[in-house]
Structure formats: structure tokens, C-alpha cells
Amino acid sequence: MNRNRLLIGFAFAIVLAFGASAFVYHAFRQASAAPAPVVTQKIVVADGALPLGTLLDASKLKTISWNASEPMAGMFTKIEDVAGRALITSVSENEPILEGKLASREAGAGLPATIPAGMRAISVAVNDVIGVAGFVTPGTMVDVLVTGVVGGGTQSGNTSNVTRTILENVRVLAAGQKIEQDREGKPQTVPVITLLVAPDDAGKLAMASTQGKIQLALRNTVDVKSTNPGPVLESVLFASGAPPVPEHIAVAPRKVIIAPPPAVPFTVEVISGGKRETKSFPNQ
Description:
Elements: H1 2-32, E1 40-46, E2 61-67, E3 120-125, E4 141-151, E5 159-175, E6 192-197, H2 199-211, E7 213-219, E8 232-233, H3 234-237, E9 266-272, E10 275-281
Antiparallel strand pairs: 1-2, 3-6, 4-5, 4-7, 5-6, 5-8, 9-10
């Protein structure tokens, strides 16, 4: 009886070992099998670092292999589909050229190609102070402030200077003739700044730069919140302050003096030598 149990246990162990061996063999065979080939396709990339506004041609482009199972939206597979169009953003070497980075073929090259449809580029004269010590460079965002005179005119003399923020979160397209920011962030001293604005804002900026004095306020590029600050009046800014409120002074009630009624004079009848007369004397 014990012998039969041992035989059965031994046979079960043999079967279990055979199954484990078959499983390990199958796993090693799968691991050693050659991976499935990756299907690739050609995509167009930049042959080197290219600045904003560059007009693309075959000498600035090349193709590289790309996994066909991971396509990118707006990518190109032929250089001729990209040639003749300008970049609206700078690209790095081997960076894919995508539809969203290109201007239309009719837009040309340079600064005009970077202006979106419905927007305008307008330039204003600046100096070191207006241009925030040269740190207003292409790609930065600024607010535009203007200082001018308001009131009844110079003849009436009823005038006051006011500073008002007329534009907020405006993109700088160019500093001088440069449309690319210095890679090291160095300031650029230029006489002219070009801003990207809506058509209505272009009129405001033209009026402000010719009839008043403008000032640019540099802001963080990620800060897009509009604050709409109120105007600052010169008469308020330099006023000495509100007049002091007079302290309450207790006033004693006025004493009314009533004058006594006038004294009624008394009269005396005087008879002298047959002559009669009446004389009045004050009543004291």
C-alpha cells in the first residue's frame, strides 16, 4: 500500500517537473525571438537652428526617419511641401517642421510673416527709460502708459496732467530691426520698438505717441491678467492732502440782556404871579 502511494507521488512529481520545464522553454523561446520590425516614414525637420521669419528652402531642411505608428499633427513628409514658406516661430536643429509653425505662402518672409491675420504692427520711438533700460526685447510683453494734458485748455488755465494705461499685455514683435531675442537675455538699446496690436489699439497708440508721452511697463510673459488700473491725476498725486477737519468747539449760550423800559418823566404845575405853566422833570 505504501509502495503504491510512493509510485503515485513519484509519477505526479515527474509530470509537474515536465510541465514546468515546458513553460520555461516556451518563455525563453519567446524572449529570444526577433522583435517585430518598426515601420518608419520620413518627416521634414530643420537642418539647423532657424530664427523667426526665415523663408524656408531645401538648403535649410532635411528628412529623418520617424515611427509611422506615432504621427504628429501637422507634420510634413516632403521638403517641397514646406519650401517657400516662412517660420512664425524659431526652431532648433532637427526640430520637426509643423503646419502651426509656418506662415501662409502669400505672407512672404521676415516681420510681415509673423503678423497674424487681423492684427497690426506699429512702431513707437523709445529711449533707455521708455524701453525699460533695453530689456523690452522681441517676444516680451508690455503695458503701454501715456501721460498727457486734460482740462479746459491752456488759455483757461484749468488743466491737469494725467497718466493712463491704454494697452495691456501687448507683445513686442521687434526691437529696432531685430525680431529675435538675444539667447542670453542681454538688453538691447534701440530707438524704435514694434508692437503687435489690434487695429483699434493701433489708433490709440498713434495718438498717444504724438500727443502725449508714452512709457512701456515690462511684465512677466506668463502674467496675462488684465488689471485695468485707474488714471493718475497730477493734481491728486502732488496735492498736500485733504484740509484738516476742524475740532468741535463748545460755544457758551449767549446771555440775553433785556433793557429796562424808559422812565416816565413827572410833571409839575408852577404858578408864578398869575402865570401858570407845566414843567417836566426826569424820573431817576
